[in-house]
Amino acid sequence: MSTAAINGITIGYDDEGDHGTDDVLVLVHGHPFDRSMWRPQVEHARSLGWRVIAADLRGYGESTVVPGVTPLSTFAEDIVGLADHLGVERFVLGGLSMGGQIVLECVRQFPGRIRGLVLADTFAQAETPEGRGSRNDMADRLLREGMAGYAAEVLWKMVAPHNTEAAEHVSRMMRAAPPDGAAAALRGRAQRPDYTPVLGKVTVPTLVVVGSHDEFTPVTDARYLHDRIPGSTLVVLDGAAHLPNLERPAEFGAALETLLAALR
C-alpha cells in the first residue's frame, strides 16, 4: 500500500504491474466499499502486462475522511490528481456503481485523459427528488447508527444469495466504511447531474457490464448506457447481483481482457 497527498488529503492506493508500460488501468470502487473490491481484476490485468492503479476514494478505506458533502466532481478530481502524481497521462478507466458515475464525471471533465471505459452496474441519469430525499435520509442514519445495520440489510442485494465468499468480503468492506465518509458521498450523489449528454460524446472503446440479478442498477440501466455510447459492448453476467466482479470474477475478467486486448 502507498499513500499520496492529493488535493489536500491523503489517498491510499495500490500501483501494481509494469511501471514502464503506457498501458495503464485505473479502477474506481463503489459505495460503501474500498479498493480491495478490485483485487481479482488487479491481479488479472497485471498478469496481462498492464499497470493497474486502484485507490481508496476520499472518505473510504485508507484515505482521509472528509465529513460533509463530497460531490462526484471532487472524487473525479482526486482520481486525475493521483494519475498526475504518478506520472500517468492517459489510462483506461473503470468503475462500479458510484464508481461508474465518478468515471462518467471524469469523462465530462477530462475526456482527453481516457483511452477506454469500463462501466459496471451503474447508471447515468440524474437523481430524482425521491432519490435525493432517500440518500440524505440514509446519510443521516449512517451518522446516527453506523454501518452495521445498513450492511446487514443490503448484503443480499449487493451479492446474490449463496455466494458466501463474495458476501463475506462485501460485508467486511461495508462494515469497515467510515460513516462520515459514506454519508458525505451519499449527499454528493444526491446532487449528481444527468450524464446522459456525456454518453453520446464517448469516442473510446467501452465495456458495459451488469449482473443479471442486480436490483440497484438493473439490466435496463446497463442497456440505457449501451444504447447511447457509440460502439460499446454490453455483457450481462448471469446469476450475479450488484458486484459481478467479485461474484463472477472469471467471466468479468474475460470481458475486461477482451477490452484491454483491443486497446493494446
Automatic annotation (TrEMBL):
Protein keywords: Hydrolase
Matches recorded under Gene3D superfamilies: alpha/beta hydrolase
Domain AB hydrolase-1: 24-249
Top-level taxon of the source organism: Bacteria
Recorded coiled-coil stretches: none
Entries under SUPFAM superfamilies matching the protein: alpha/beta-Hydrolases
MF terms in GO: hydrolase activity
Keyword Hydrolase: yes
InterPro entries registered for this protein in UniProt: AB_hydrolase_1, AB_hydrolase_fold, AB_hydrolase_sf, Epox_hydrolase-like
Pfam families reported in the protein's UniProt record: Abhydrolase_1
UniProt name for this protein: Alpha/beta fold hydrolase
Organism (species): Actinophytocola glycyrrhizae
